[in-house]
Specification:
The complex is a heterodimer of chains A (about 160) and B (about 675).
Chain A (H helix, E strand, L loop, with lengths): L1 H12 L6 E2 L6 H12 L17 H15 L4 H12 L14 H27 L7 H11 L11
Chain B lengths: L1 H29 L2 H5 L1 H24 L6 H6 L6 H7 L4 H21 L6 H25 L23 H30 L4 H32 L10 H26 L3 H23 L6 H6 L2 H24 L14 H31 L9 H21 L10 H27 L4 H26 L4 H7 L2 H26 L1 E7 L4 E4 L2 E12 L3 E11 L5 E5 L2 E5 L5 E4 L1 E3 L4 E10 L5 E9 L2 H18 L2 H13 L6 H6 L1
Antiparallel strand pairs in B: 1-10, 2-3, 3-4, 4-5, 4-6, 6-7, 8-9, 9-10
Helix pairs in contact in B: 1-3, 1-7, 3-6, 5-8, 6-7, 6-8, 7-8, 7-13, 8-9, 8-11, 9-10, 9-20, 10-11, 10-14, 11-13, 14-15, 15-17, 16-17, 17-19, 19-20
The chains are: A mainly alpha (about 160), B alpha+beta (about 675).
Chain lengths: ~160, ~675
């Protein structure tokens, strides 16, 4: 209950007209790190809430734990390692890069590249066809006769 | 008696839906006039029966008939009447009936506003809708009957989930479902066109207003969901990347791609196969969203495995709908004739890029939503995918889209040149960059890279949208003539794109410049935040209709000491479901929101209090509303209505869509 003791002390030191933060730090950098960290941690017993948001007891415990570790000078990585060792990857809202999560981090990029390549190839292929110096009107006739087969494979057709 | 009537109406509706799924389509295939003619009456009967069934369920809620299990589980005699009505769609069974009511309502609307459609085509559309209705009705009747009786009847109901006792939740599901279900119309148009073997500009023109209207409802539904989460959940966030939110966001993203792709198909007869595929994909994602939300799989993979009846049914149905439509697609798509040619640099290509990016964005959300479920189901470990993932990935995907969005409307169809584009856009780029940096600096006195990117992009979209409108206006002399010569659809597009700019401003500034504080406060204490002073004046006990609450008074004064607002956040305990609920108090404004929530009592008069100062938050919803209103303008464009009049004078009893297109 050191936290409340500290709060009590703060209350004595400052005028009682000003409210005190629930979790106090000596410096601004610690406070910012605390905020950023708790926002990226999942409250394990809640529906889908971060440790920063939740009022659940577990979330409070984790908040205190994180605050203590930051005050003792532990790095963000040390805090995360500690929590993962205790609660598993589930506690992290930012999934770690692992074999199982490769698709999560690289899937969208690969899909984008794939989509772009397909698009360029298809547009080029489609535009190359009539450029064999056949007059457009003749091309149209050919296309009508063939039932437009040459355009069949394009997603844009 | 009345609940049985409602149940009976549902059963009848199922039979009507089955006939509706078979006869009109068979009639269209064989050219059987009488069968084709059954489409309209069947769709209307379907709507009438669902209206009856829905009314019966609503009646049971208003009367607090606790002999109906669903009512007993989700209502209470102390519940105010308006929440009793909204409780009808407050839980699983009722929301499905509500979904079906909407679905049949869309079908009814199609029978009313489609006089210009060839009867054969309409018959196919109605038939496909009948098939979907039959699936859902079967689902309701087999696994989720809201009219099941409770013997003996409960003396008192278990009450509606307190989170849902709120005006946002009265409106949010109806709008969302209107959007979800509305895409079934776009889907049905696409499958009907595939069945008929004629995908053409006419098909695109017919399905465009329907798709746009569905999209605008989904937009509004998402806005309301975001607004509700913001003030009701009490964490001051406006979007949580929750799987439930993602479920309605994915159809919105693909739906956005679809309305752009439809534009190309209508105007340039290009991307036909792709547009059809998007229409199928959009509705499939609506169904997937239904599966995720309704099967309980999101709450826990294991809960789903223990009681899989509902989930398995929807998943099977999803498989049938997607599988069947893709089969039809594979069968018909090779016969689709190509559209006009276009260069690598053309508006067509840019719109194709828009589609690719939106599909990639959808895939990102889909991966983020499904990967944890799959890993858990395959016993490969439990992971969480939350805001940090999406907040990293999403800007990467969306920033190029926003850049293209400015260029697209100023690019020629068919073939454009880099030189011409550069000439058109050079000043706009310069103004956007300088203006974006200057505005952030003036407003906040500081800026990070992301803030500058956001400001510049927002300005870029707004300026280019105005520029392309200006180019259209300049073509005519005289202000009035010029203004009235521009079609409503163009104004709609301009407004929606400016809305995106406004939304970007809201997202960027709220994310970067919000401040918040978790405090321990006793009456009399105050705290400074974002240039305002919040004074915790008092706390008192109050009694509501079905809850008791602690209510605080927080006086907010600005830097010059004037009182800005008195906020009264509450901590409520509902009598029946006794979990504590946070009612945040908000003073909203165009440029900043002040937000106070009570977290928990700390003993004595002390409370844990959360204070938030959120600049530009309302711009997010304002931008989204502009997008929805832009959709409304676009859907109301004259050309959709002129078509109706012209076609009506032509009187075509049975026709082929392809012929109609040539007129």
């Amino acid at each position: 209950m050191g936290r409340f003791g500290l709060l009590f002390l703060c209350g004595l030191m400052f005028s009682t007209a000003f409210a005190q933060p629930l979790v106090t730090f000596d410096n601004v950098e610690y406070e910012a790190r605390f905020k950023a960290l708790t926002e990226e941690l999942r409250c394990l017993v809640c529906q889908n809430q971060s440790v920063a948001e939740s009022n659940a007891d577990l979330a409070k415990d984790i908040r205190n734990q994180v605050a203590d570790m930051i005050r003792q000078g532990d790095s963000d990585e040390a805090v995360i390692d500690y929590l993962v060792a205790r609660y598993g990857d589930f506690v992290l809202y930012r999934p770690p890069l692992k074999k199982q999560t490769l698709i999560l981090w690289f899937g969208p990029g690969l899909l984008l590249v794939f989509g772009l390549v397909i698009t360029v190839v298809l547009i080029k292929r489609r535009n190359r066809a009539p450029s064999i110096s056949v007059p457009p009107s003749a091309m149209d006739r050919v296309e009508t006769l063939l039932g437009g087969e040459e355009n069949d494979q394009g997603i844009e057709s | 008696m009345i609940p049985e009537l409602g149940h009976f109406a549902l059963i009848l509706a199922l039979f009507v839906a089955i006939i509706q799924a078979i006869m009109p389509i068979a009639g269209a295939a064989r050219g059987h006039l009488a069968w084709i003619g059954m489409a309209r009456p069947l769709a209307r009967a379907q709507f009438g029966l669902l209206l009856l069934s829905f009314a019966a369920l609503t009646w049971a809620f208003i009367q607090s008939d606790f002999s109906v299990a669903y009512v007993a589980n989700n209502s209470n005699s102390a519940l105010p009447w308006y929440y009793r009505v909204s409780a009808v769609w407050g839980a699983h069974e009722g929301s499905l009936v509500f979904w079906m009511l909407m679905m049949s309502g869309w079908g009814f609307a199609v029978t009313l506003f489609s006089r210009s459609l060839p009867e054969q085509f309409l018959a196919r559309v109605i038939g496909v809708m009948g098939f979907i209705s039959a699936g859902f009705l079967l689902f309701i009747l087999l696994t989720s009957n809201p009219f099941d009786r409770l013997v003996p009847a409960a003396l008192e109901g278990r009450d509606l989930n307190p989170l849902l006792q709120d005006v946002g939740l009265i409106l949010h599901p109806p709008l969302l479902y209107m959007g979800y279900v509305g895409f079934s119309v776009a889907f049905s148009f696409a499958v009907a066109a595939l069945l008929g073997g004629h995908l053409d500009a006419a098909w695109a023109r017919w399905s465009r207003p329907w798709t746009t209207v569905a999209w605008l409802f989904l937009t509004l539904g998402n806005v309301l969901g975001s607004w509700w989460a913001y003030y009701e959940l009490g964490w001051g966030g406006w979007w949580f990347w929750d799987p439930v939110e993602n479920s309605s966001f994915m159809p919105w993203l693909v739906g956005t791609a679809l309305i752009h792709s439809l534009a190309v198909t209508e105007k340039r007869a290009a991307f036909k196969s792709w547009t059809v595929l998007l229409a199928i994909l959009t509705f499939s994602l609506s169904l997937l969203g239904t599966f995720l939300v309704r099967s309980g799989v999101l709450v826990s993979v294991h809960a789903f495995a223990n009681d899989p009846a509902r989930g398995v049914f929807i998943l099977t149905f999803l498989g049938v709908v997607v599988g069947a439509s893709l089969l039809i697609y594979a069968w018909r798509a090779p016969n689709i004739k190509g559209g006009g040619r276009f260069d690598l640099l053309s508006r067509e290509t840019l719109l194709l890029l828009n589609n690719i990016i939106l599909v990639v964005a959808t895939a990102t959300v889909l991966l983020g939503t499904l990967t944890p479920l799959l890993l858990d189901a395959l016993k490969l470990g439990k992971i969480s995918v939350g805001p940090p993932y999406y907040n990293f990935m999403f800007p990467l995907v969306m920033i190029p889209l926003v850049v293209l969005m400015g260029i697209g409307p100023l690019t020629r169809w068919g073939s454009a040149s880099v030189g011409e584009l550069a000439q058109r856009l050079r000043y706009t780029i310069i103004i956007a960059v300088i203006g974006g940096v200057a505005i952030t600096w003036l407003l906040f006195g500081k800026a990070s890279v992301m803030v500058i990117i956001g400001s510049v992009l927002a300005l870029w979209v707004i300026l280019t949208s105005l520029q392309s409108l200006w180019r259209r206006l300049r073509q005519r002399d005289g202000a009035i003539a010029a203004l009235s010569a521009v079609p409503a659809a163009f104004y709609g597009m301009t407004l929606a794109h400016i809305g995106v700019g406004v939304l970007i401003i809201g997202v960027t500034y709220t994310s970067a410049f919000s401040s918040e504080k978790d405090l321990r406060m006793v009456p009399g204490q105050s705290h400074e935040l974002g240039g305002y002073s919040f004074r915790f004046a008092s706390i008192e006990k109050i009694t509501g209709p079905n809850y008791t609450a602690q209510r605080a008074q927080v006086e907010v004064t600005n830097s010059s000491g004037e009182q800005v607002a008195i906020l009264t956040p509450e901590k409520r305990i509902y009598r029946v479901q006794t979990s504590p609920m946070t009612e945040a108090a908000i003073d909203g404004g165009l440029f900043r929101d002040l937000y106070v929530a009570l977290s928990e009592p700390l003993g004595g008069d002390a409370w844990a209090v959360r204070l938030y100062h959120k600049p530009f938050l309302r711009w997010i919803w304002l931008g989204a509303l502009m997008m929805a209103f832009g959709g409304l303008l676009a859907a109301s464009d004259r050309r959709y209505r002129i078509d109706v009049k012209q076609k009506r004078t032509h009187a075509e009893p049975i026709n082929d869509p392809a012929l109609a297109a040539q007129q």
